[in-house]
User: What shape does this take?
Amino acid sequence: MEIEKLFEKVEKIVRSAGNLLKELYFSSWEVYHKGTIDLVTTADIKSEEFIKKGLKEITPDIPIISEESFSEKERPEGVYFWVVDPLDGTTNFAHRLPWFAISVALLEEKNPVLGIIYNPIVEEFFYAIKGKGAYLNEKPIKVSQKDRLIDSLLCTGFPVSKILDSPDLFIPLFKKFMTKSQGVRRFGSAALDLAYVACGRYEGFWEPYLKPWDTAAGMLLVKEAGGEITDYFGNPYNPFLNTIVASNGKIHSQIIEITSKYHPDYFKPYRNPFPTVDIIIEVEDKIVLIYRKNPPYGWAIPGGFVDYGETLEEAARREAKEETNLDIEILYLLGCYSDPKRDPRFHTITTVFVAKGEGELRPKDDAKLARFFKIEEIPWDELAFDHAKILKDYLKRKNYGIY
Assistant: This one.
């Protein structure tokens, strides 16, 4: 595929869609609610229809993921697919705040090869082609060269679907960066935030729970401008992950040192230790271990947090089912483990049960893999948390008949 020739055609489509948004911005439109504070306007819909029509004309065989018409049941097939946000910053647009953009990216598998972000009000047209650099209105752009977090200007956003119900999961990280940087801006368009990192106006950006159409084009811009993109833990990023950190690269490790402690899937805003359960599941002469999908990576005993209102035994049965698909019969309580360092993310106190498992073993939830291990096959050097200690206690008691 000749990306550079394709870019010329896509540029015309995006600029025309930008003119449409500009006309609507200075006229009138209707506003609808997708959620309590999650808006969509007739401008979003008209822009999306225009862009999708144009892309289908020039690339009829390439599927399109677009914000306002996307369904979770529809997954693109094939190597290439478009990712489109026809109006990123809808709330700003609805309030006549001129901070919004069109974002269009062409992905090869999960990697963007072409990205465009266009703010038609200020007429800033950002674009990048993989391996060809990043540009703003035809001029090459590069990330900033600041190397200290305290000298850096950062930007972020909050997930509209979660901020009303769970503000304590997101505000502490914002507060932390306010005290560690020169300042934090929150303007309401992730696409423009990433473009501004790429051209050196911001040094860094972080945000959880964005969608592919929010980040795909901006991801390529930052990388082509010399910056760095990861998740909150510093792992390689793709637009289908649920956290993103973008920076000039020079302050990236300083940002990750902080974000890694505040991932909203794991961060707990309260200071008491968290009750968890772990279940050593026996099936004949083997035990079940899962390989974790999320950090800390490694093989682990199935388990997880105790939900409010659950007994420990109920939590053990639920977690076993959620992670391994097995039904269990609890045999006995092995013990409790409370070392504050047993979990590198936060302080947990776990209750460990030994149980008999039945059913079809299948990895689910936090489990990337799930398999049976004979005792002599246990991968001791690859065990996460303090699970080597737990399993050694289990074997010692099992061998000596101490229950």
Remarks:
- The longest helix spans residues 3-25.
- The radius of gyration is 24 Å.
